[in-house]
TrEMBL record:
Protein name: Light-independent protochlorophyllide reductase subunit N
Native species: Roseinatronobacter bogoriensis subsp. barguzinensis
Binding site for [4Fe-4S] cluster: 21, 46, 107
NCBIfam families named among the record's database cross-references: DPOR_bchN, PRK02842.1
First-tier enzyme category under EC: oxidoreductase
Gene name of the record: bchN
Length: 426
């Protein structure tokens, strides 16, 4: 029996990496958790990054901010904990709507060894029970940008209340409209009760226990998976809900856990499945037969490779991912046909050499590598856009395929309009 790519030797690379800051996760998390606030303990650079990434209008009052570490803090001339306590007190007095406060570590706060875990405990005593204070690291020193969400959700698990109830926990921050679609499908299938982590409001915070089963909606939640497992919950292993195949298999795995026949799932998803297949087919005319190379960036690479090769007809040359978590990615690897190189970690110069040698039709990479590759005549897709765009489940499947078709169409149009320029680059 074929196991797809599960047994393929993995090329493990440890060298210079091109990564985006883990603070980026705050941009989608602060929109999801409506009564939470994310206070980054960092530098002015951290503040500028968040403002630029979020595109927050000057008169808006977002649910994130930065407690600036000045030169005197970094030099040890001031008591950073006293200043942090003062800033938190000022913030909570001005914003009584905040029910959950995250102290988010950054590169500067970690360099000076500021103990935000202890600070969170201290501030929880001071401001509880009205405000729960937690902490996690968004530092980009050793992480890739989606690990910010993973660290945030993992920090919430020890504070969750306990329950003996048999229940499903959906784990991962989805746009509200996508989460509502998932909950509606599960309700039609007959799966109940269903809770979400993160919840939109603190009052809806889920409880967990030995009868809790959880399904991940994002493939980058390795630490959260481990925290939930330690707390006694059990993971439902399945492909991730990208595209028709992934969404169907994900729902069937959950249904099986609750004793519901797969035929019931097929009945419920019949109409959205037809819509999704039609939408995917429109983009697949551009994607079919094209060769794709995944640089390690978002940790979405493996399920996206499965979707693009099996449902859109693309050929994967290399599937690179920052971390390959077999418990999470195994079902995906079982479905990907043997052939592509699997790589974990990055040595960016060596990987760029492989990109240039193979000349793929499309390279999925971070923003820092996209423009140089485009200048060499290679079409690219920004990995970060795949996190900021709704791409899960049936109704978004066509949009997901289109995200990869558009750069190929743009590249083809540019080649028609400026053939000499692109030929020179190639």
């Amino acid at each position: 029996m074929s196991t797809g790519c599960r047994d393929t030797p993995v090329l493990k690379q440890r060298g210079q990496r091109e990564v985006f800051c883990g603070l980026t996760g705050i941009i989608w998390l602060h929109r999801k958790m409506q009564d939470a606030f994310f206070l980054v303990v960092g530098s002015r650079t951290c503040a500028h990054l968040l403002q630029s990434a979020a595109g927050v209008m000057i008169f808006a009052e977002p649910r994130f901010g930065t407690a600036i570490l000045e030169e005197k803090d970094l030099a040890g001339m001031a008591d950073a904990n006293e200043e942090l306590d003062r800033e938190v007190a000022r913030l909570l007095a001005r914003r009584p709507d905040i029910k959950q406060l995250f102290l988010v570590g950054s590169c500067p706060s970690e360099v000076i060894k500021l103990d935000l875990a202890r600070a969170a405990e201290r501030l929880s005593v001071i401001h509880g029970p009205n405000v729960r204070v937690l902490n996690f690291s968004g530092s980009g020193i050793e992480t890739t940008f989606t690990q910010g969400e993973d660290a945030c959700l993992a920090s919430m698990v020890p504070a969750l209340p306990s329950t003996p109830e048999k229940q499903l926990l959906l784990v991962g921050a989805l746009p509200d409209v996508v989460e509502d679609q998932a909950l509606a499908l599960l309700a039609q299938i007959g799966v109940t009760p269903v809770r979400c982590l993160p919840s939109r409001r603190v009052q809806d915070t889920p409880a967990i226990g030995p009868n809790t089963v959880f399904a991940l909606t994002q493939p980058f939640l390795g630490d959260t998976h481990a925290a939930l497992t330690r707390a006694g919950a059990r993971h439902i292993s399945a492909p991730f809900p990208f595209g028709v195949e992934g969404s169907t298999l994900w729902l069937k795995a959950i249904a099986a856990e609750f004793g519901i026949a797969p035929e019931k799932v097929d009945q419920v998803v019949a109409a959205p499945r037809v819509r999704a297949e039609k939408a995917i087919a429109a983009a697949a005319t551009t994607l079919r037969g094209k060769r794709i190379f995944f640089m390690p960036d978002s940790q979405l690479e493996i399920p996206l490779a499965r979707f693009l090769t099996r449902e859109c007809g693309m050929d994967a040359i290399e599937i690179g991912t920052p971390y390959l978590h077999t418990d999470l990615h195994g079902p995906e690897l079982d479905l990907i046909a043997e052939g592509p190189t699997l790589s974990e970690g990055q040595d960016v110069d060596l990987q760029l050499d492989r990109v240039r040698a193979s000349r793929p039709d499309l390279t999925v990479c971070g923003l820092g590598l996209a423009n140089p590759l485009e200048a060499e005549g290679l079409a690219t897709k920004w990995a970060i856009e795949l996190v900021f765009t709704p791409v899960h489940f049936f109704e978004q499947a066509g949009d997901l395929a289109a995200l990869f078709a558009r750069p190929l169409r743009r590249h083809a149009a540019l080649k028609r309009q400026h053939p000499n320029r692109l030929e020179a680059a190639e």
